[in-house]
Amino acid sequence: MGSATVAMVAQWSPLSNLNISQRSDCRLRNNRHPSPRNRCTSRRIPNMVKLSLNLKAELAGVNNLAPADEDGDFTYFFKVECTSCREVHNNWVGISRNEEAEISGSKGNATWVWRCKNCKRESSASFENAPVSYDKEAPKPILTFECRGCEFVEFKPDGEWVCEGEESGTKFEGVDLTEDWYDYDEKAGAEVSIIDMQWEIKRA
Ligand SMILES: [Zn+2]
Fold this sequence. Notes:
By secondary structure, the chain is an alpha+beta fold. The chain has one domain. The protein is built from two helices and 14 strands; from the N terminus they run ααββββββββββββββ. The strands form four sheets. The protein has a six-stranded antiparallel β-sheet with strand order 7-8-9-1-14-13, with no helix packed on it. A three-stranded antiparallel β-sheet has the order 2-11-12, with no helix packed on it. The longest helix has 31 residues, at 2-32. The chain binds zinc ion (ZN). Residues 82, 84-85, 87, 116, 118-119, 121 line the site of zinc ion.
């Protein structure tokens, strides 16, 4: 009985020690880097949120719709909300995956760094993956990104997209999604279209 109790205590105590050591690690970092810029980062990094860009659309005769972004230079346009002051900014911001910007205070890099005009706080976003083609049978998020201090709230599909003839494999390039898209697949001898697009940004 007695030894069982000891074992339980022994099992439990490393966990409580872990919590203490995590907390004291912040203080340790303070001591190592006395500059206020290097205080415990958990308090200084604004809330991080993972978001994904999702599409729902009616694709007729085509599939595997994706932005023409093999080189990472496609520009994605978003409306941004500052999560500090909750202002949704009116202007569209354009972000490409191959961009890189430095976060102030040596906190590393992000795809995009931005300062809210309203509250002057800095926020950033990083793209986590190359775009995933929209497969109408099993749609997955097209993009996922990590936002700190801001959230993307709206997406505008400017730029050139690509898709393929469903049976024919015909490559369609320069697909314009700013409105319903119609074309003709000569190999299949059929009209093709992409209509009823609904873009949604969700928590990933
Ligand atoms: Zn703000």
